[in-house]
Amino acid sequence: MLPHCSLLLLLCAAQLLSSSSALPFEQRGFWDFALDSLENGGMMAMMMRDQEEGSAVEEIPMPDGPTCPFGCHCQYRVVQCSDLGLTEVPRNIPPDTKLLDLQNNRITELKENDFKGLTNLYALSVRNNKISKVHPKAFAPLKHMQKLYFSKNLLTTIPQNLPASLVELRIHENRIKKVAAGAFSRLGNMHCIEMGANPIQNSGFEPGAFKGLKLNYLRISEAKLTGVPKDLPDSLNELHLDHNQIQAVELEDLSRYKNLIRLGLGFNHIRDIQNGSLSFLPMLRELHLDNNRLTRVPQGLPNMKYLQVVYLHSNNIHQVGVDDFCPRGFGMKRTYYNGISLFDNPVNYWEVQPATFRCVNDRFAIQFGNYKK
């Protein structure tokens, strides 16, 4: 059992995690995922308070076995069974469990009755196992589960019949090559999907693959995309497609995504962003186009009233015009730039006119640096 003070320290550390970061999601431990969104008083704080007050949080005796699976730690409705070399989901998991940690084991399959009776489960982590098969009814008992962490396994498709209550799905670093039509059907509560580092191509997304979803956040990084996927949810606030093989951004590629606030297209092979393609993103605040093959600053940036951060470093930009970033008219831009990165481009910074950055907060927000051939 974890000492009470150690648990509080873990809770404080876990609150530092933010899912909206531009960096790829990296779950280092169970507490990272278990506590990152327990807001408005906090579920864990509530459970701890219940424990102190003696209100029905005590371990429920199991009729045919121990109250906690052998080798696991069970406290405050949290069951930790990570790093035990398990080859299957353990039995005798307390039925009042809220958070179940099975990461870093050798589980190969999720069977029909593995989670039987766990109707109160809020979050499940099976990260870093060897799971290649999931029974269609494996998640049937999990009527209230909101978070599922399935990264670093051997899945080739999206598991069937995910709980309708699911809010967040992390399924990156698997072997998924295809997302079938209706793969996320009945998941109207889903806000976040992380499915990067899967060997999926544009053709792997069937028409209607994301139908019905109202996502805020989607990451399909480190895949094999050669273009912006079609028919992604138009509700997106964040879209991350970095570390792919995208060649260009065409006029209609972004026409659906009027709610985008952050767009990540770094580390691709983009040579051209068609004029007018960015005009479909009126609310955009952060644009990542670093580490591509652009030869000029994309057109349309001066008309983006709320744009604050633009990453253009490590491209092949030779010159920067006086009107490349800022509108000519006074007061047309609602928010000034906080950051413009242009370093590692073959442009001579002393040739850029000072008026080019007239809508930047201060000169420290501009990064030129030296160009290395």
Tell me about this structure.
By secondary structure, the chain is mainly beta. The protein contains 3 helices and 18 strands. The chain has helices spanning 4-14, 30-34, 43-53, and strands at 73-75, 78-80, 99-101, 109-110, 123-125, 133-134, 147-149, 168-170, 192-194, 217-219, 238-240, 248-249, 262-264, 272-273, 286-288, 309-311, 339-341, 366-367. It has a 14-stranded mixed beta sheet with strand order 1-2-3-5-7-8-9-10-11-13-15-16-17-18. Strands 4-6 form a two-stranded parallel sheet. The longest helix is centred in the N-terminal third of the chain and has 11 residues, at 4-14. The radius of gyration is 24 Å and the shape is elongated.
Shape annotation: elongated
| Major sheet description | 14 strands, mixed
Tell me the span between the first and last alpha carbons. 57 Å
| Class by SSE composition | mainly beta
> What are the segments in which pLDDT stays under 50 over at least 5 consecutive residues?
1-25, 27-31, 33-66
Strand content: 5-15%
Tell me the number of strands. Answer: 18
Number of helices in the DSSP assignment: 3
Mean pLDDT: 86
**Percentage of residues in helical conformation:** under 10%
Going across the biggest sheet, name each strand in turn: 1-2-3-5-7-8-9-10-11-13-15-16-17-18
Rg on CA atoms, Å: 24 Å
